Amino acid sequence: xxxxxxxxxxxxxxxxxxxxxxxxxxxxxxxxxxxxxxxxxxxxxxxxxxxxxxxxxxxxxxxxxxxxxxxxxxxxxxxxxxxxxxxxxxxxxxxxxxxxxxxxxxxxxxxxxxxxxxxxxxxxxxxxxxxxxxxxxx
Length: 138
Hints:
Distance between the termini: 103 Å
Order of helices and strands: HHHH
Oligomer: single chain
Radius of gyration: 35 Å
Mean pLDDT: 85
Number of strands: 0
Largest sheet: none
Low-confidence stretches: none
């Protein structure tokens, strides 16, 4: 279509371009209509596939066993909600209290891990020291 509606004096490859089409040509309106057709059909297909996906996802979630189906992992919880009770209260305001089985906040354990490693290293040093004392006594 662009070839037929373009200026015949243009280079042959350029005549395939929309920019070479005569501005008063009906081809521009056909191009616009075709574009809107593709956009509309694409949107309808996407909406249909989203409905299909959501239905499959719902079935998948319903068949999933507890506790996997009923567990949420949250990060970046605001300071005000970083207790078990506050978090439960927040979710109870969104859903209902009966919908919440339990809430549990995992505390920061980085410092605890460091202390645990230090304790383990101290115990190993103590074990080696007591082993060498036992060897010296014999």
